[in-house]
């Protein structure tokens, strides 16, 4: 049995055999020094920057950032859309943010269509039925940030998050386009992308269907992509402090929204 090789592997070799005295004047040979490969340092975070791409006729405009030096927070409005922030720029500036997009879906009455957690404060309820709640972006109490399908995190876990927006549908999951996305209705889309590590992108696309959006994103090296509220809700603001900024994308017919995702420096 492997567990009985000279007792335990953790014990020194002298415990396996009785020690024998060395003859006098026997030179003691020093063991050769073990060369240790120094750990490879991770590349330093790249500062947030405006990133614009065109893929398959769809234009993507947004801001890329690294979660090691910046984080997302939810700016929710308990009294309903427009009650605290007129737009994404106002939501970002109120908290010292450098960029923001509109976030979750909401009902005609202004209530969240899904669960929202902002600095630990819960609004709405866990959406188990609609495709508009099939995924969630979250930051846990330990600071971990991710995008996941709602079946991966249960209601109790979701409610315990520090920050969370439930939305949908998922566009890309595990680096593959999600099947069954709607293919007839074209609209401006707001979305959040994640490479599975520390790289993130928030922004919007030019008008397209969800199916076309998912296919276009397959050309981007991302792991998960989550659709947020779009159309008349679509609202993107990036400050002049961001490389490539400022940038504002908010139409004249835009409607007030319930909440925003804001980028803050850590």
Numbering strands along the chain, what is their spatial order in the largest sheet? 1-2-13-12-14-10-11
Specify the overall morphology.
globular
- The computed structural class is mainly beta
Compute the CA-based radius of gyration. 26 Å
Residue-averaged pLDDT, rounded? Answer: 88
Q: How many runs of DSSP E, i.e. beta strands?
A: 17
What level of helicity do the residues show? Answer: under 10%
Low-confidence spans = 1-34
Share in β-strands: 25-35%
Query: DSSP helix count?
Result: 3
Main sheet? Answer: 7 strands, antiparallel
Our measurement of the CA-to-CA distance between the termini, rounded to an integer number of angstroms, reads 52 Å
Written account of the structure:
With 266 residues, this protein is mainly β. It has one domain. The protein has three helices and 17 strands. It has helices at residues 88-94, 155-159, 210-217, and strands spanning 49-55, 58-66, 70-76, 99-102, 116-118, 121-123, 135-139, 145-149, 163-167, 170-173, 176-177, 187-194, 199-208, 224-227, 236-238, 247-249, 259-265. The strands form three sheets. The protein has a seven-stranded antiparallel sheet, covered by helices on one side. The radius of gyration is 26 Å and the shape is globular. The termini are far apart. Mean pLDDT is 88; it is low at 1-34.
């Amino acid at each position: 049995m492997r567990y009985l090789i000279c007792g335990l592997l953790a014990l020194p070799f002298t415990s396996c055999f009785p020690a024998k005295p060395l003859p006098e004047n026997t030179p003691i040979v020093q063991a050769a020094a073990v060369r240790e490969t120094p750990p490879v340092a991770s590349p330093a975070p790249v500062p947030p920057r405006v990133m614009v791409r065109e893929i398959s006729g769809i234009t993507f405009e947004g801001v890329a950032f690294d979660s090691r030096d910046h984080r997302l927070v939810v700016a929710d409005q308990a009294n309903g859309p427009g009650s605290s922030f007129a737009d994404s720029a106002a939501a970002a500036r109120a908290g010292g943010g450098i960029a923001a997009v509109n976030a979750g879906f909401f009902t005609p009455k202004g209530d969240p269509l899904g669960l929202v957690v902002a600095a630990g404060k819960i609004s709405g309820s866990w959406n188990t039925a609609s495709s508009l709640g099939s995924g969630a972006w979250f930051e846990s109490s330990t600071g971990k940030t991710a995008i996941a399908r709602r079946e991966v995190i249960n209601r109790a876990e979701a409610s315990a998050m520090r920050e969370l927006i439930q939305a949908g549908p998922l566009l890309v999951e595990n680096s593959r386009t999600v099947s069954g996305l709607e293919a007839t209705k074209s609209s401006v889309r707001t979305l959040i992308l994640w490479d599975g590590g520390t790289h993130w992108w928030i922004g919007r696309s030019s008008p397209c269907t969800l199916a076309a959006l998912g296919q276009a994103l397959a050309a981007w090296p991302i792991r998960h992509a989550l659709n947020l509220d779009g159309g008349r809700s679509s609202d993107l603001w990036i400050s002049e402090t961001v490389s490539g900024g400022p940038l504002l994308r908010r139409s004249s017919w835009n409607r007030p929204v319930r909440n925003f995702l804001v980028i803050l420096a850590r």
